[in-house]
Specification:
The chain has 223 residues and is mostly helical. The chain has 2 domains: 124 residues, no CATH class; 60 residues, no CATH class. Helix content is 71%, strand content 3%. The protein has a two-stranded antiparallel sheet with strand order 1-2. Helix 6 runs antiparallel to helix 7, helix 7 packs across helix 9 and helix 9 runs antiparallel to helix 10.
C-alpha cells in the first residue's frame, strides 16, 4: 500500500511539475518584452535576458510554445537565446511539422546573429539554415503533390458517381468502386458506417448500400 501510494503521488506530481515549468517559461518570455516603435515586442535585449533565465532543458517547452499564437514570436527568441543547443531541436520540429519551416528559418537566423553564440555555433546555424531551406522546398513539393493526388482521387470517385446514374455505365464499375462512392456519399452526409446513427439514418444507410453497392433496387444514388 505504501509503494502504491508513493507511485500515485509521483504520477500526480509529474503533470503539476510540467505545468509549473511551462508557466515559468511563459512568464520568462513575456517578461523579456521591450517597448518599441510598435509596442511591446522582442529584440536583442530580450534574447540576452532569456539566455540568462532559461536553459537547454527548457527547449522542449519552447518548441511546444511555438504553437501558441500569442507566444510564437517570443518562443522563437527564447529558442534562439539557447544558441547551439536549439539548432537540432528546431530543425527536427520543422521536419516533424511541429512548427513551420518559415518559423524554423527565422529562429536559425536569430542564432546566426546573436553575439552571445560562439563563432562555431554561427557556422552551424548557417549550415542548418541552408538545410532547412532545402527541406522546406522538398516538403512544399511533397505537399503540393499530395494535394494533386487527392484532387485526382476525388475526381475519379466523382466520375464514378456520375456513371452510377447511367444503367449501362454503372455496370462497368467494380464492387470496390461502388463502395468508394457509397462511403463518400455517407461522408458528405456526416455519417460513417461504424458511427452513431438514429434508427431512421440506419435504415437510410442500409438502403443506400443495397442500391449503390449491391444494385438491388436500381442504380441511381441518392441526391
Amino acid at each position: 500500500m505504501v509503494v502504491l501510494g508513493s507511485s500515485c503521488l509521483a504520477y500526480a506530481q509529474a503533470p503539476q511539475a510540467e505545468n509549473e515549468a511551462t508557466s515559468r517559461v511563459r512568464k520568462a518570455i513575456l517578461n523579456s518584452r521591450h517597448l518599441g516603435a510598435h509596442g511591446l515586442g522582442y529584440n536583442g535585449q530580450s534574447m540576452e535576458a532569456l539566455s540568462r533565465k532559461l536553459t537547454s532543458s527548457d527547449i522542449p517547452i519552447m518548441v511546444n510554445l511555438l504553437g501558441d499564437r500569442d507566444l510564437r514570436v517570443g518562443a522563437q527568441f527564447a529558442l534562439a537565446s539557447q544558441c547551439e543547443a536549439a539548432i537540432l531541436p528546431v530543425r527536427n520540429a520543422a521536419v516533424d511539422h511541429k512548427t513551420s519551416f518559415l518559423d524554423a528559418d527565422d529562429i536559425i537566423s536569430l542564432i546566426e546573429n546573436f553575439p552571445r553564440c560562439s563563432a562555431e555555433t554561427h557556422q552551424k546555424a548557417m549550415a542548418t539554415h541552408s538545410e532547412i531551406h532545402t527541406l522546406g522546398e522538398i516538403d512544399e513539393r511533397k505537399t503540393a503533390q499530395e494535394a494533386k493526388e487527392r484532387a485526382a482521387e476525388d475526381q475519379r470517385i466523382q466520375n464514378n458517381r456520375l456513371k452510377m446514374l447511367d444503367p449501362n455505365q454503372s455496370k462497368t464499375l467494380t464492387r470496390q468502386e461502388r463502395e468508394e462512392v457509397y462511403r463518400r456519399s455517407l461522408k458528405a452526409m456526416g455519417l460513417a458506417e461504424d458511427g452513431p446513427m438514429t434508427p431512421e439514418q440506419h435504415d437510410l444507410v442500409q438502403r443506400m448500400y443495397r442500391t449503390m453497392v449491391l444494385g438491388e433496387s436500381g442504380n441511381r444514388p441518392p441526391n
